[in-house]
Amino acid sequence: MKAMTQDRYGEPDVLELRDIDLPVPGPKEVLVRVRAAGVDQGTWHQVSGLPLLGRLAFGLRRPRFPVPGMDVAGVVEKVGAEVTDFHPGDEVFGVGRGTFAEYATARTLVPKPPNVTFEQAAAVAVSGCTALTALRDLEAGQCVLVIGAGGGVGSYAVQLAVAMGAEVTGVCGPRKLELVRSLGARKVIDYRAEDVTGEYDLVLDIAGSRPFPVLRSLLTPRGSLVLIGSEEGGRWIGALDRPFGALLRSPFTSQRLRAPISLENKASLVRLAGLLADGTVTPAVDRTFALPDAAAAITYLRDGNVRGKVVVVP
């Protein structure tokens, strides 16, 4: 099969299209014929090997898994001996391993709603589950500020918060203003043209460039600050400096400072699939790239102009 592979860490151009053996699913895994694979910051971390602390999971000197990619949507080709809930021919989406390929193995999957395309479904799992985790304490009627509202996680966070009954303000760049409005945000702020002001029950910071005092000044006295990701950290620990900072500050304030770890799980995917099926949530897919252009897809993401998500199509 064709797959984008890497034998070293580096810029996206380390990826090469090669013919490799078909992966073999384990007893609890499914072999999926990939119809689309999502691209997110986690994919870039896999390819670049940054931050260096992440290599404990990815491989210290070279990638442990030569084919990157996690988000997947496709058709079940084969099931492992212990899999009873899927059969060959089923259309599915979720999280797999090595999804930048014609076939990939996966364990965390759910049926794809028929009203959702494979390209849309491939953009859901990682970013959608992250947004759900970030908003787990949200209550109806609260005021929410989403900083980075036009990106992958942000585009889901806006829609989910609106569906939960919150009043949402989104912060993004000028190219993403119309997208964020279309997702249901009551107010949209172009951070390049105006300051972010107001008082919110929950501030979700995905962009990661504002210092703690600024973020906390936007909260009510008992509001919650939720930190999701950041590409501002150094080579060694990257975005992990922000969770550590939140942990150190949290005991000394009445405000809640959280940096939750998102785990893509079956329950969250089932919930997201239901919201996709009834039209409450619609994946925002900016562009699709052919499999040989996966490096260009990652570069496009890293440039910061993606409106929602991008996907790779074999």
UniProtKB/TrEMBL annotation:
InterPro entries: ADH-like_N, ER, GroES-like_sf, NAD(P)-bd_dom_sf, YIM1/Zinc_Alcohol_DH_Fams. GO terms for molecular function: oxidoreductase activity. It comes from the Bacteria. SMART domains: PKS_ER. Residues 10-312 form the Enoyl reductase (ER) domain. This is NADPH:quinone reductase-like Zn-dependent oxidoreductase. It comes from Actinophytocola oryzae.
